[in-house]
Amino acid sequence: MYKQEQKNRGAERSLTALFAYFCLHHIACVKRTADIEHFSHVAFVPSTKATGQDVHPLESMLAPKVRALAPVQLSVNPEIASTRRSFEPGWFHVETDIRGHAANVLLIDDTWVTGARAQSATHSLKRAGARKVVVLVLARQVSTTYPQAKTLLKRMDHEEFDMDVCAFHHDRGPTVPSPR
Questions:
Q1: Among 98, 101, 105, 108, CA closest to 47
Q2: 4 lies in a domain?
Q3: I want to staple 129 with a disulfide (CB 3.0 to 4.6 A). Which of 10, 61, 99, 169 is the partner?
Q4: What is the CATH number of the domain that holds 96?
Q5: Would 20 be classed as within a structural domain?
């Protein structure tokens, strides 16, 4: 995949294109739903597994696309096992001072399995002073061994994926890009 040492440039391009497409067609709806005018900051959920890289590959890929937003750095608490699959309030540390900034943070993650990391990162951002945090996940990994996934898998078998359908309103998004 795109995280490995021998990077898959096709996977990188696909994730970058998916992010750009989502922003062009759906970010205005996300902001309306979250009741925010604009995002002021961006953060990326760091990998909880030792990758030997200082910057998460997703952050390296997408940082140029969100350069208008102030970056918020998160670090991992190594005392919490990377194998955890539940909310951990102390899993991440916010390394950037965002208090007093009325920060509306776009938190980007590459995959969603249980939501534990995204929820834990959101908790840390809120405790550090973020006004609102919106999580944007670029991929959903569905495990057939999770009992909770059966309903989702059943729906996926019967519904065709359409990138133009709004996740909030289940209708087609705008055809014209909306400004930041």
A1: 108
A2: no
A3: 99
A4: 3.40.50.2020
A5: no
* DSSP state letters, 127-160: HTT-SEEEEEES-B---TT-TTHHHHHHHHHHS-
Domain that holds residue 98: 36-141
Q: How many domains does the chain have?
A: 1
Q: In degrees to the nearest 10, what's the CA dihedral of 20, 22, 26, 31?
A: -70
**141 burial class (0-12, 13-18, 19+ CB within 10 angstroms)?**
exposed
Residue 75 lies in a domain: yes
Please tell me the predicted confidence (pLDDT) of residue 179.
42
CB-based contact 105:125 (threshold 8 Å): yes
Q: Which residues, given as ranges, of the chain have pLDDT below 50?
A: 6, 176-180
The pTM (predicted TM-score) of the whole model is 0.82
